[in-house]
Each structure stands twice: as structure tokens, then as C-alpha cells.
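[Automated response] Your request has been received and processed.

Submitted sequence:
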Amino acid sequence: MAIVLFQLAVQATVDKTQVGLEIIPQFLIGAAGAVALGLAMGWAIGALNRFVPNLAARCAATLVAPYAVYVIAEELHTSGVIAVVVTALEMVRRDRPQDSAERLTRQSFWEVLELLATGLAFGLMGIEMNQVIQEEGRNLIGFIPGIAAICFVVIAVRALWMLGTYYLPNRKNPKIPARKDALVLTWCGMRGLATLALALALPKVTADGSPIEGRNFIVAAACTVLLCTLVVPGLTLPSLMRVLKLRNNEQDTKRAKRNLARRAEAVALSALKKNLDLQELPENYQQAVRRRMNSLHTILAKDPDPHDAISDEKYTQVRAVIAKADSIQAIALEAARDELLKARREPNVDPHLVDEIVGRLDRRTATLDR
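Generated structure:
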């Protein structure tokens, strides 16, 4: 919503027009069209990936899709931002448990790409600030009161939000140091790539060629907000944690991880019992499959050693039997993954913890695929 409103404001500034209530129906119509377009693009990429055997090509499609749907949405005068978001959600929704290798590759690919994009954005902002300093000179001193007010509002709004959404609901719970937690959450309200991208997206001139007033101030304000909310908190957060002496919830995290891992293991074992194909395997293979599923909670709760006894299971029979055993395990692992994704939507369940365990489950499934 913030990015859409930003785009409307920039367009009105460039065209020198007024923005009124008439944008509400326009936005609703554009949003509806963007949702439909995003769903269609997500379906198209999912369908295309079913026919593309190359893993690198399928990962590349996730890079092309957001740019393609954004351009199409803008050409159709709908919201490109909403179309991109819906496309991403639909692509994730269409992920299959057996696509574990693709998910692992895609995650690594996007982590590298995000790091490069962030570095590029900070570099471009440095170049932009150098131009602002050369153009404004001593006039930058006059920016200080306005920029200081903006930084104060940014931090104050974050503090009030944490007060209303975290501190007040938990203030009577003796097990939760709500005041300290709210302070840390306020301190973690860091701004980054989105702020840089929006500031860099500001055009320098209007449609008739006249310069846009206040652009240099906005760029300087964006850099200062980054300094106040990203650099300063990032460097001082460890010290703040030590000063507040917050509780160490590592044991709680381990306990929650074990519970999720055992829950996934129980579902996998249940799926294994219902699988009639297991009975057609030789007895030693049946025992090997059961041993692997009985050790699933250990594998998910902690990173397994790549040379452990489970991964080095020795098979002496033909490859066809091994493939069948692996396919049976994959079905059980699919059931476990579905159970974890179901748990992710439940209250009081840490979604990041679930994602970590799902990632390990994907790595186990990818090992079977190889």
C-alpha cells in the first residue's frame, strides 16, 4: 500500500495534477486486475515448470516472472506492485513437496541476488548523496530540522506500535518482560532496501522539464533515516540486549523445535503404515525405511552429519528396489512437510522455526531425489 501510494504521489507530481478521492475506485479496480494478473502469472509459471526438466531454468523463471508481470500490469494500467506480490504468493502456494531440490537452489539463488541488489542500492545512494551535497552545499544545514522531525516520527510511530501490539497485551504476564521486549522490538525497526529504492526512484524533473522541488531533501532524509534506524541500532543492539539482561530462550527454542520435529515424524510414520507398497520390499529394506523414519525427529531437530549411519545405509540389492524404497520414504516425507506447513499457520508457532525445519526436510528429500 505504501509503495502504491508513493507511485500515485510521484505521478501526480510529475504531471502536476491533484490527487483526490477519485483515486479510491481507480485503485480498487486496478488492484482487482492486478490480483487476477498475478494469479494467472503464478499459474503459468507453475505450469511451465512442470515441463522444464532443467533446474537452473526453473530458478531463472522465478527471476523473470516478477519483472514480466510488473511490465504487463503497468501496460494494462493496473498495480504492478500488487501483481508482483500476488505472483510470488501464488508461486509459493503451488510448490510441491517433491520440488525440494528446486526450493533449495532457488533459496540460495535469491539470497545471493538480494545481497547484490542491496549492495548496488547502497552504492547508487552514495553516488546520489554526493550529487546532493555538491548541489546544495551549505543549504544542507537548513535540512536538519525537517530531517530530525522525520527521524523522530519514524521511531515514535514504531514505539507506539510496539506499545499497542506487544507491551499492552503482555504486560500482566509475569513470564514475559514485555517492557524490555517492546524496547528491543522498537530498536529493531530498521529501514533498508525499500527506503533506498523509493528514494532513488524519484524523478528529477516533471513532465514539462521543470525540476521537482524537494527531491534533494527527500534523498537526504532517506539516508538519515537509514543511518538512524539501520546503522545505529545494528551496531548497538548486542549491547542493548546485554544491558537489559533479557531471558535466554534458547531452551524454549530447542523444545519447540523438538516438538515440531516429533510431530512431523509421527505423521511420516503414520503415512508409512498406510503405504501398502512397503510390504512388497524385502524385509531388510523395510527395516531400513522404518529406521530412517524413526530417526526423522533427530534429523530435523539438529543438522545431521553428512556421513552418519542413516545416510550411509548400505544397500546390496538391485537399484530398482532402492528406488522403490526411496519413493516410499518420499511419500512419508511429503506427509511430514504438509503437517509442518499446517503447523505454520497455527497461533503461538514460530514460522521461522517451521521454515528452518522444512528446509532440513527438503534437504533430506533432495538427497533421496539424487
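Summary generated for your ticket: Residues 36 and 85 are 12 Å apart (CA to CA). The radius of gyration is 26 Å.
If you did not submit this request, please reply to this message.
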